[in-house]
Write a structure and sequence with these properties.
alpha+beta, 5-stranded mixed sheet, 4-stranded antiparallel sheet, about 20% strand, globular
């Protein structure tokens, strides 16, 4: 029984926030529907990457992240919200339902995270060498745990080098597949007129052999002098207790919460999914961390110059009437 229905105005505001979530190659594989006073977050199968994401893992991560943004928008509008994951087993595309459960004022933390939504974007450029403060690191871990996930911050050159080697090996496996490369090229844009994909301006410097962590060649721009990446980045691995479809939605919720926490702390981040996309690399990563459960995303975190947000489709293009 829904105690307070989401209004049309609140629904639109929630969707405007939701579409700012990250997605693999900025495919934006989501749709939204206002039904019976609640918001349904649905997968858009037409935007699933058939080569890079054959299982729909990346779709569920993206839709979980979008649901977190929508939930924040409802919170700052004064709504208590219950989050139901996979609420209808017979409807495979229905991933999250946000059900209002009364009224309450937003917390200061919710307002801070909501204000960070338009400022959050993947920063694929090199970061400054300044270390990330301990207080910010603790906030990231707390943010991830609040959504039922875990975050492992790599401490010391040994663990960092080990994860970097796993990520590089996974990238080599992926790059050997011409269909994978063609799919990435299809989602690389020369400008922002498409409303999706990754424009070259947001792609960061082109990869180079000396880079510790792999980067996707979205920009194709030659690297200028002094454009090498930081030698000791803060790398974190986000994971969940298991790897069911529900766990992947939890990972999406946690990922967006930690990314907004990073943004609110004045930091930048980029995501590396290559070690997750290759099953053998993912298992190597789990063993290297000594963790139970499943790694779901690798993050690079630090202080960076202002970057280039990727474009988004209009709200009217992602709403089902």
């Amino acid at each position: 029984m829904i105690s307070a229905a989401v209004t049309d105005q609140a629904f639109r505001a929630a969707v405007e926030a939701a579409v700012r979530a990250p997605s693999l190659h900025n495919t934006q594989p989501w749709r939204f529907r206002l039904r019976d006073g609640a918001i349904d977050v649905r997968a858009d199968p037409t935007r699933q990457l058939r080569v890079a994401d054959p299982t729909g893992w990346a779709v569920r991560i993206a839709c979980g992240a979008a649901a977190f943004n929508a939930r924040l928008a409802l919170a700052v509008a004064g709504s208590e919200v219950r989050t139901h994951l996979r609420p209808d087993p017979t409807d495979l595309d229905l991933l999250v339902r946000l059900v209002p459960a009364g009224s309450r004022p937003a917390t200061p933390a919710e307002r801070h995270l909501y204000d960070a939504i338009p400022r959050r974007h993947s920063n694929r450029a090199p970061f400054f060498p300044e270390p990330v403060p301990a207080s910010a690191r603790a906030s990231m871990i707390e943010a991830t745990q609040a959504e039922g996930a875990w975050l492992e911050l790599l401490i010391g050159p040994g663990p960092l080098a080990g994860v970097a080697e796993i990520a590089q090996a996974a990238t080599r496996v992926l790059d050997r597949n011409p269909d994978y490369r063609a799919e990435m090229t299809a989602w690389t844009r020369v400008d922002e007129s498409h409303g999706d994909g990754v424009p070259s301006a947001a792609g960061g410097p082109s990869p180079a052999p000396q880079d510790m962590l792999p980067a996707r060649p979205f920009s194709g721009r030659p690297r200028g002098p002094g454009r090498d990446f930081e030698s000791h980045p803060l790398v974190a691995v986000l994971g969940t207790a298991a790897d069911s479809q529900r766990d992947q939605l939890v990972a999406g919720l946690a990922l967006q919460r930690v990314l907004l926490t990073i943004t609110d702390s004045g930091l930048a981040a980029s995501m590396l999914s290559q070690p997750i996309e290759v099953d053998s690399a993912r298992e190597r990563l789990r063993i290297a961390l000594g963790r139970y459960g499943a790694p779901q995303m690798v993050l690079r975190i630090g202080y960076g110059q202002p970057g280039f947000p990727t474009p988004r489709r209009g709200v009217q293009d992602v709403i089902d009437e």
